[in-house]
Amino acid sequence: MSVAAAEADLSDDERRGLELVRGTGGIHQSDFWKELDLSSRKGSRIVESLVEKDLIQREETVYEGHNTYYLTPAPRDLDFSLLMAGDMLSPFIGDEEINPHSDAFSQWLMNLAYEE
Asked: Which of 1, 21, 34, 48 lies 20 to 30 Å (CA to CA) from residue 27?
């Protein structure tokens, strides 16, 4: 199942939980359910569901003297192919402003056309 498909099937509580894990970059499970104002049992069920759908990862740890889990967002497989033309990355990726009439953009566009 793709990440998008897995995310589309989430309940409201699962979506809130996923947003919390992604937003924090990682959180202890004991804090997870407290932040969401859920019972530990319901929080554990949500974590289990998100782990099964490969949306988060769970690692055993000790926190404040107690065994718990540390929850982190699952790595996503990013597809950069839409930004590529041959071996050239789009000139629009970056901080500087690119003129669409520039040589860099023209070259990238020509490489894109030659791929087809």
From this structure: 1
Q: Which residue has the tokens 């409201």?
A: 12
Helix (H, G, I), strand (E, B) or coil at 54: coil
Give the predicted TM-score (pTM) of the model. Answer: 0.63
Q: How would you write the pLDDT of the chain (116 residues) with one tens digit per residue?
A: 667 777 888 999 999 999 999 999 999 999 999 999 999 999 999 999 999 999 999 999 998 898 999 999 998 766 677 777 777 777 777 767 777 788 877 887 788 777 65
Domain 3-73 sits in CATH at 1.10.10.10
Domain residue spans in the chain?
A: 3-73, 81-115
Task: Identify whether the C-beta of residue 68 lies closer than 8 Å to the C-beta of residue 28.
Answer: yes
* Inter-residue contact 54 to 74 (CB < 8 Å): yes
